[in-house]
Amino acid sequence: MPNALLFRIGAVSKTTGIPVSTLRIWETRYAAFSPRKTEGKQRLFEEHDVSKALLLKQLANEGHAISAIAGLDLDQLRRMRNLQHVAPSNPSSQGDLVTLAVVGIGLANRIESKKFASGLQQNRIKVTDVLMDLAAAGQAEFGEKPQVLLIKVNTLQADVHATIQGLVQKHAFAQTIVIYNFAPEAVVQAMKFSGLIVRREPISDIELAELLQSVVFVDQVRAQEFGTRGSVIAGRKYSDETLARVAGISTNVLCECPRHVAELIAQLASFEEYSQECLNKNAEDAHLHAYLRSISGSARSLFENALEKIAQHEGIDLYEEKK
């Protein structure tokens, strides 16, 4: 992989907190890693090696012998860790579990660190899948049906948005979170319009942990209020321009229903976006805003369905502007 990130052993040690001498022993004695080597015999580790080192450290600290686990691959190590850290002693606590698929090994390493776990106040995380990039995610089956798809990309463009939307439609994640470095504002707004949560780096571990917790809280609210746990809050169907056009149409319907419904949808969509933006700005208010986002998003979707019925009855073309 010519574009793979490579790390010297000192960088791996700093990232994982594992002494260089220990990493060398794990490599030479137990064949835990197979790093590349430069002409000067410098070890170069890939991102999946960093992931493995973190998991080996965590499992070794919990009593597993390195000799017994060093030969396992990343998926096997993650399953071991999940079995120990996720399986609740009380089955009723299963609602506190956040299951997610992560696109981007660097982000997965961050999620799986103890430092990140310390930022989770009441939820626990189970990483069900780790994919190298969006191309790999497109081929994945996601057998355990994670609630959240968490994606890290450097640059957002329209084709990236389309790829992510394809993943969401195929697998029906309860929520998709996209972390990015650079993007045109138009693409960011389009992604938010379609129901994705989009955040620009830098985002702290505490902010990201709170955001994940809030997303799962949205799912719990939908289960309590609407009996639809695991379902997706659909993205908006109609732009502000379409709603404004419909609101200005005179019809024979009593009480000017098209105008009232269009205005309600616009107000609910605005409040929904406000609540989404506030999800991780204030840790104390995050769950309240998650609740408000769930309610406003569900109500907006219901009123969009109502607008379609009104439009059909009155012969209003909701997509006229696209022709």
Concise overview:
This protein is α/β, with parallel strands linked by helices. The protein is built from 14 helices and 8 strands.
Descriptive tags:
323 residues, alpha/beta, Multidrug-efflux Transporter Regulator, Chain: A, Domain 2, Rossmann fold, 3 domains, 14 helices, 52% helix
> Could you report the average pLDDT, rounded to the nearest whole number?
80
What's the SSE pattern?
EHHEEHHHEHHEHEHEHEHHHH
- Give the number of DSSP strands: 8
CA(first)-CA(last) distance? 45 Å
**The CATH architecture of the largest domain:** 3-Layer(aba) Sandwich
CATH C-level class of the largest domain is Alpha Beta
- Number of helical elements: 14
Describe the protein.
The chain is of the alpha/beta class. It has three domains: 1-85, Multidrug-efflux Transporter Regulator, Chain: A, Domain 2, CATH 1.10.1660; 88-232, Response regulator (Rossmann fold, 3-Layer(aba) Sandwich); 240-322. It contains 14 helices and eight strands. It has a five-stranded parallel beta sheet with strand order 5-4-6-7-8, sandwiched between helices. A three-stranded antiparallel beta sheet has the order 1-3-2. Strand 6, helix 9 and strand 7 form a beta-alpha-beta unit. The protein is elongated, with a radius of gyration of 23 Å.
